[in-house]
Design brief:
By secondary structure, the protein is mainly β. 0% of the residues lie in helices and 37% in strands. It contains no helices and 10 strands. A 5-stranded mixed beta sheet has the order 3-2-5-6-8, with no helix packed on it. The protein has a 3-stranded mixed beta sheet with strand order 4-1-7, with no helix packed on it. A two-stranded antiparallel ribbon has the order 9-10. A hairpin with a 6-residue loop joins strand 5 and strand 6. It starts with 10 loop residues before the first strand and ends with a strand.
């Protein structure tokens, strides 16, 4: 997968992390956050740590011009970065493909897994795939417009359908009524 990082980045976007423990949702103080260019994974662009509330400083990062998001067919309107989060007593986490837009704050909420719950030398990796506007994906599988009632699971329709015989919604209980 190509985690494209836009070369034309004259603008600035912002990044902030909020790190908590997966076990008890408490903030993780002193978590180290490294931000890298996805094309050069060994090059650290920025580095920060979380405070006692589990929040990092707001980091300014290069981003493409805002105009890219307003022009159909233009380059991607965001930069992609790789985020590595480590903290003593917790499993490291790597997030590839974090998107930074011009003038916007990207918030990364992450829960770290305590080491006593994981295997030694393990690391959790999350990959954020490129947006569907800028990447080729296989076509969706076509579904029948009319579904049988005996199927289990959820049914996704192509448009809003109101069942026949429905006349109103009860204002007290919000149930559909056929009376």
């Amino acid at each position: 997968m190509d985690l494209h990082a836009t070369q034309d980045t004259p603008d600035t976007g912002y990044f902030q992390a909020n790190i908590t423990s997966q076990r008890d949702s408490r903030p993780v103080a002193g978590a180290k956050i490294q931000i890298r260019n996805v094309n050069y994974p060994n090059e650290i662009i920025e580095e920060t740590e979380t405070d006692s509330s589990g929040k990092s400083d707001t980091i300014s990062l290069p981003a493409p011009p805002l105009e890219y998001s307003l022009t159909p067919g233009a380059d991607r309107p965001y930069s992609t970065y790789s985020i590595r989060i480590t903290a003593p007593g917790f499993e490291p986490v790597e997030i590839d493909g974090a998107e930074i837009l011009s003038g916007e704050l990207a918030l990364q909420n992450t829960e770290l897994l305590p080491i006593d719950n994981v295997q030694p030398d393990s690391e959790e990796l999350f990959v954020i795939s490129p947006h569907t506007l800028y990447e080729e994906y296989p076509p969706k599988i076509a579904e029948d417009e009319i579904k049988t009632v005996d199927e289990t699971g959820e049914i996704v329709l192509s448009r809003v359908v109101i069942p026949s015989g429905v006349r109103s919604v009860c204002p007290h209980c919000m149930r559909i009524s056929a009376c």
